[in-house]
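Quick one, T. Sequence first:
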Amino acid sequence: MSRDDDLPAGPPPPTRRLMLKGAALAAGTLAATSGPAAATPEGKPAPFVNPLVRQRADPYIHRHADGFYYFTATVPEYDRIVLRRSRTLDGLASAAESVIWTRHATGVMGAHIWAPEIHRIGGKWYVYFASAPAESVWDIRIWVLENADPDPFKGTWVEKGQVKTAWETFSLDATTFSHRGTRYLVWAQHEPGMDNNTALWLSKMANPWTLTGSQVRLSTPEYDWECVGYKVNEGPAVLARNGRLFLSYSASATDHHYCMGLLTADADADLMDPASWSKSPVPVFTSNDTTRQYGPGHNCFTVAEDGRSEVLVYHARQYKEITGDPLNDPNRHTRIQKLDWNPDGTPRFGDPVADTVADSAKESA
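Structure tokens:
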């Protein structure tokens, strides 16, 4: 969970291989640009600057006890892990970006560096990310880095190794959270023999890089909106509020069909029992032609500067038409907006917000 890590009281599947095989790595270093917030029709300042960080997909923002927001995300070159920090969310747009780890030239962790998340656990920093061997770039697995320095921009990032799951299959998008004294990992993985690309899995953890006990499937693509182009459940994120745990996730292909679903469990329930989780039959966050935001997803949650208001963090594109494979298009921009709540205590995601920063020109891949 982005607000706090402690919540309150075989080869990859062939279809996924086809999706990834056409992806080439975009070249060049991409700088984030932004500007002042635009005004709303009522003349009041818009809540946040959007896009917040350009060409940064799968965003993750952790608000730490030191008062800083720490930001990391997938870069279009898929070759490194970057980190920014700022005392305000909007400040992340112009914050200096540091490379804290770079892919290996050969061997494991050599390709497709995807979806990093930064967490503070037991007085140390951890980064969870997906990667593949340089010589077998579709054999994507989950890996962990550790840094014992109080400042994650300093010290040494130690490679703790691969998170070993029940199968050696395509796996990615790990996130971790602690609930009532137990640490869990949620991730996406292909299960051998299943007619899908990835499902969502949950396990308890022995330590920040090791699973323990059973591994249970929480959700598999079953509705039409989860199976457009590819049968995908991925990018989980966990939020606790109103006596419940909410687990959002992303579904379908990574073009404008990409959207978000939601699982819900009672805070008192056995989280390791799949029956404890109910699944929304409809997506909770989708592309919007009015605001011109397409393929919103791979989200996380953080909290506004007031320490109370929940903020939805996600990526989306500013156009629907994509030339070639969507994963070769670098223009998935990081966005943020207020997360509202329904009277029954469930989150109301609404629509992806329109731009508040004028786009001088559509970037080209």
